[in-house]
């Protein structure tokens, strides 16, 4: 996979014009900015150091596997990462965690269906909105600091890029670059980019314990391609078809967002024998494609062979759509793929995953299926390799 520069990644995230992108890329080359890959690599090392502190004792990986992706978003937005015991990071994480627990609750689903009606009633949607406002306020504090030290010629992060764009468009009354939108976009990145990546990683560890033969093959590939003395990097990925197939299979099998996000049809649309009137809300089910039994025989079975051809090379398929399709597809796909590869390979380079019960006794059915397929809780031991 060709790797984007830091500025390209940011602009892809925010979809700013190509011309702007060229000028920012030039600025980046003059400066000493880090690529997204380097940021994730660095976070992966902090993650492993934190995991080492468990000293092969049983632990629940939920919190720590959320803090690492959350730190990557912090680094992307405001060029700062936090220690895993930093109060600010833990506060932010508690807001995000509480909201992701509540997002699939029946009450919040009702709110999504009838927002105009329910917003006037008391209920848990109010606490949900309050926590979201607190995430926005957290971002706005960072924006204030950035405004004081902004150098438009040398953007450090997403907030700097956004502020520069605001400055360029300050005489355009139609501009969508304002502080409110900056806070909303920033909080979207936190909400959409933390729980998704962390749940996938967590589910991934569980599936690798359930299938020790798969874990052994990934270890083998890591040992032969990367070894023990260098950090995993994206250039290794192309030489690791088995690991890539495992990552794809984790995403396919868990079908993290089975019903996708709601979309609305923009015009009257004929679909099979139906006409869907303009404005109708539709849920384009990702599960119907990811679990297609012609494309993936025995779709309910975890089998990296679903993504390998006869020669053991990676099998590409249009049916692999965990990030959805089209204009509204996940803006964080590039970042998420980098994180999944680097976090998982760095963990497995350093540790063997050991379950506390026999693999066949491990429960792998989702705890909850709502907006997300939430992995069941589990503990594990990490044995240093
Ligand atoms: C394994 C990780 C991830 C998965 C499986 C995933 C999947 C998805 C899916 C299915 C959608 C809905 C697309 C649609 O409406 O058609 C989405 C939207 C979105 N994703 Fe991700 N995502 C992941 C990670 C990330 C990350 C790391 C970021 C942030 C950098 C991110 C940012 C977003 C945003 C902002 C949206 C909303 C787009 C909109 O409102 O239209 N995602 N994601």
UniProtKB/TrEMBL annotation:
Key words of the record: Endoplasmic reticulum, Heme, Iron, Membrane, Metal-binding, Microsome, Monooxygenase, Oxidoreductase
Membrane-topology annotation of the record: Peripheral membrane protein
Presence of keyword Ribonucleoprotein: no
Compartments (UniProt record): Endoplasmic reticulum membrane; Microsome membrane
Single GO biological process annotation from the record: xenobiotic metabolic process
Cofactor(s) annotated in UniProt: heme
Listed GO MF terms: heme binding; iron ion binding; oxidoreductase activity, acting on paired donors, with incorporation or reduction of molecular oxygen, reduced flavin or flavoprotein as one donor, and incorporation of one atom of oxygen
UniProt GO cellular component terms: endoplasmic reticulum membrane
Major localization listed first in the record, in broad terms: endoplasmic reticulum
Gene3D superfamilies given in the database record: Cytochrome P450
Pfam families assigned to the protein according to its UniProt record, in alphabetical order: p450 (PF00067)
Residues that, per the record, bind heme: 330
The keyword Endoplasmic reticulum is assigned to this record: yes
Listed PANTHER family: CYTOCHROME P450 2C44 (PTHR24300:SF346), CYTOCHROME P450 508A4-RELATED (PTHR24300)
Family that this chain belongs to: Belongs to the cytochrome P450 family.
Protein name in the entry: Cytochrome P450 family 2 subfamily C member 8
Organism this protein belongs to: Myotis myotis (Greater mouse-eared bat)
Phylogenetic lineage: Eukaryota, Metazoa, Chordata, Craniata, Vertebrata
């Amino acid at each position: 996979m060709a790797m984007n520069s830091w500025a390209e990644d940011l602009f892809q995230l925010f979809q700013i014009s190509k011309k702007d992108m060229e000028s920012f890329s030039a600025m980046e080359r003059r400066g000493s900015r880090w690529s997204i890959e380097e940021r994730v690599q660095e976070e992966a090392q902090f993650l492993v150091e934190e995991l080492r502190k468990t000293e092969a004792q049983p632990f629940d990986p939920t919190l720590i596997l959320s803090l690492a992706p959350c730190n990557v978003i912090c680094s992307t937005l405001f060029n700062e990462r936090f220690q895993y015991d930093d109060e600010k990071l833990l506060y932010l994480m508690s807001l995000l965690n509480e909201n992701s627990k509540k997002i699939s609750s029946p009450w919040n689903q009702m709110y999504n269906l009838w927002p105009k009606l329910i917003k006037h009633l008391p209920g848990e949607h109010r606490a949900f909105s309050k926590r979201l406002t607190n995430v926005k306020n957290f971002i706005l504090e960072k924006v204030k600091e950035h405004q004081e030290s902004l150098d438009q010629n040398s953007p450090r992060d997403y907030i700097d890029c956004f502020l520069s764009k605001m400055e360029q468009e300050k005489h355009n009354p139609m501009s969508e670059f304002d502080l409110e939108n900056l806070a909303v976009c920033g909080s979207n990145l936190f909400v959409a980019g933390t729980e998704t990546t962390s749940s996938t990683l967590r589910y991934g560890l569980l599936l690798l314990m359930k299938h020790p033969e798969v874990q052994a093959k990934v270890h083998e590939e890591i040992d032969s391609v990367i070894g023990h003395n260098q950090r995993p990097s994206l250039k290794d990925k192309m030489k690791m078809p088995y690991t890539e197939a495992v990552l794809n299979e984790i995403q396919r099998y868990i079908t993290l967002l089975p019903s996708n996000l709601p979309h609305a049809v923009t015009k009257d649309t004929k679909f099979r024998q139906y006409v869907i009137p303009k404005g109708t809300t539709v849920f384009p089910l990702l599960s119907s494609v990811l679990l297609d039994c012609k494309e993936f025989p025995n779709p309910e079975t975890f089998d990296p062979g679903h993504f390998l051809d006869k020669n053991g090379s990676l099998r590409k398929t249009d049916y692999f759509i965990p990030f959805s399709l089209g204009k509204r597809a996940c803006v964080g796909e590039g970042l998420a793929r980098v994180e999944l590869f680097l976090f998982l390979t760095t963990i497995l380079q350093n540790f063997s995953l050991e379950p506390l019960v026999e693999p066949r006794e491990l429960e792998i059915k989702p705890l909850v299926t709502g907006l997300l397929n939430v992995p069941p809780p589990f503990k594990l031991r990490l044995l240093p390799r």
